Amino acid sequence: MAADLLRAARQGLPVAGGRLNRPGHVAGSGVAALTIAHATALTLPAAAILTAGAFLAAMLPDLDNRRWWRTADKYVPDEVLGYGGPLNHRGLLHWWGLPAIAYAATMGLDAPWWALTAIHGLIVGVAAHLVLDAVWGEPGIPLAPWWWHVGLGLRNDSGLASAATFALPLVGLWLAFTVAAGFPADPRWLL
Q1: Which of 78, 100, 112, 140 is the most exposed place for a label (fewest CB within 10 A)?
Q2: Hey, how many other C-beta atoms are within 10 angstroms of the C-beta on 111?
Q3: Are 73 and 90 in contact (CB under 8 A)?
Q4: Res 57 pLDDT > 80
Q5: Burial zone of 4 (CB within 10 Å; 0-12 exposed, 13-18 middle, 19+ buried)
Q6: What is the DSSP string of 25-37?
Q7: Taking the CB of residue 44, how many other CB atoms lie within 10 A of it?
Q8: What's the pLDDT band for 187 if we cut at 50, 70, 90?
């Protein structure tokens, strides 16, 4: 754990409450993709592609935490645009409009099913990250491209955040099992 925290600090990754945010975001993106797979009755290969795409994109909004991004923000005078500028953390990359625009851009695309499913998985991964950031941490996510933030503002270092970080992978495993086995996600079928 300590080695992970030191590595994260050297790489410019977010460290909150003595642990990394990555596990919760990656698990949350998997849960989101598998929930969609259940709700839309995706085939097993499609569910796997969607979930893989979501896993890959789970941390994309946090590129604004990387050292190279922060260096660019230091030299680009984007603050003149107001509200800290679009390069600020939880700025433009955390705007809900980016995954919405990306999804709208895929409507009517003439591409193989697996390619569209992979693209949709990437979109789901980003959207899941934004949902979790709207729940945990200040200032939430922007309604406008990089300003007018909304969110619950729950603490990243709270017991609730730890419980969610622990529970999300378990929920993901349950959903993966039920998708693969063709069972409903509702556990009442066990009774």
Answers
A1: 112
A2: 11
A3: no
A4: yes
A5: middle
A6: HHHHHHHHHHHHH
A7: 12
A8: confident
pLDDT tens by residue, 33-55: 999 999 999 999 999 999 999 99
3-state helix, strand, coil in the chain (%, to 5): 65, 5, 30
What is the tens place of the pLDDT at every residue in 95-130? 999 999 999 999 999 999 999 999 999 999 999 999
Confidence check: pLDDT of 1 > 50: no
CA angle 105, 110, 114 (to 5 degrees): 90
Distance of alpha carbon 80 from the chain centroid: 29
Instruction: Provide the pLDDT for residue 35.
Output: 96
Spell out the long-range contacts of 19-25 with Cβ–Cβ below 8 A and sequence spacing 24 or more: 19/162, 19/165, 21/62, 21/156, 22/58, 22/59, 23/165, 23/169, 24/132, 24/136, 24/161, 24/164, 24/165, 24/168, 25/58, 25/59, 25/62, 25/128, 25/129, 25/132
What the block records as the tokens of 86 is 């679009």
